[in-house]
Design goal:
single chain, about 450 residues, Alpha-Beta Plaits, four-stranded antiparallel sheet, 11 helices, elongated, binds zinc ion
Length: about 450
Amino acid sequence: MNWPQVSGRVADERQALLVFYRPLLNPPTPQGDWFMLVGAPPGPREACCVQFSSPAAMFATNAPPLPVNRDRIRPAIQALQDHLVEWRRGIHQRPELGFKEWLTADFIAAQLTAWGIDHQVKMAETGVVAVIEGTRPGPVLGIRADMDALPIQEANAVPYRSQHDGVMHACGHDGHVAIALGTAHYLAHHRDRFAGTVKLIFQPAEEGPGGAKPMIEAGVLTNPDVDAMIGLHLWNNLPLGTVGVRSGPLMAATESFTCTVQGKGGHGALPHQTVDSIVVGAQIVMALQTIVARNIDPTKSAVVTVGKFHAGSAHNVIADTATLTGTVRYFDPDYADYFAPRLEQIVAGICQSHGASYTFDYVASYPPVVNDPAMTDLVRSVALSVVETPAGVVPDCHTMGAEDMAFFLQAVPGCYFFLGAANTDKALAYPHHHPRFDFDETALGLGVEMFVRCVEAYSGA
Ligand SMILES: [Zn+2]
Ligand SMILES: [Zn+2]
């Protein structure tokens, strides 16, 4: 990314904070033609101009936070902010891996009990489901929050750092629980503000092996039947004060494969007596690259990565076997059944041509996260009313990362969105899954306001 400092005049103070415009500079550069003005001082002013390749890329990294207008967060939710931080930090200190979120689930259940909210525990092991009814009949909206942490040793020196060795909330799921609890607290105390029912779904094991599917199988979307779902991810790829949302595919499918090539080992100097599994494996690695390059519609995105290639034991020994493992990502649900047979076809063809045999295992973990157009419109219009400027709603935001929220959105229409949480001014911009990941807790109140307004908008209140 380029950061040329260029001057431009800004007429309107509001525009000075964030402006998109097509190039006024000459000539347009080959890297792209979208620009953002930042950091202009009050009064007639010069602005510095930062260049990005696309609107979404403006927020990809290093972008400063947008101002958060607290007037757009209702007083009852502002009053929760200290509690949101306290809940989040408490959970952050006691992180738990997937399907072992017992302390987290106990804490959630205790809060729900204290607020008189009906709930069920131990759904799909550690899952918790709360049901809050409005004072009038109406549709059922599900809100999902994942609860699990990662097997990472925290490197932050904050007072609320993880007390569980080797386990850390490095993805923000501690914040998701706090936001969902804040939403539950507000809704339970303002049942006259919405029609219908809200189901808060606290889900285990998003980071793997996946808790959404077992919860659906355990009946979380029935009794009462959920009509639509929403969910959010605190997102350090976006600055605080922004919401990223997109109709259609938002996050990629994730699938994985393991392939073992069985050759015939022997002396490194006598290759004619062997079938070299490294040579066969290397050809497989290269040939797999042609799937994205030559089989996938070039207007669609996909990835085939071989992440591990293990073979051999000595410089003068031809390896008997080679093991390759990798990941496949794609956005378009139409490719759901495409990759497994295509990969195996390539593996089989190359092995056959060399006289090797193989084993091939393929696991389709999560499908793509696909947002429903109508629910996306609802979330987008809510976001426009919560974040400070129209530019705070980041268009066309999507990532090759994966999420098992995908299973909920396969089952019912819904929308998953990103809530900007990075703040470079406070050095809170480490990427997700980094041992120094942390986020700006101002986003917690924004998240509750987003969810509550979505509930009100969806129920027609
Ligand atoms: Zn994660
Ligand atoms: Zn996550």
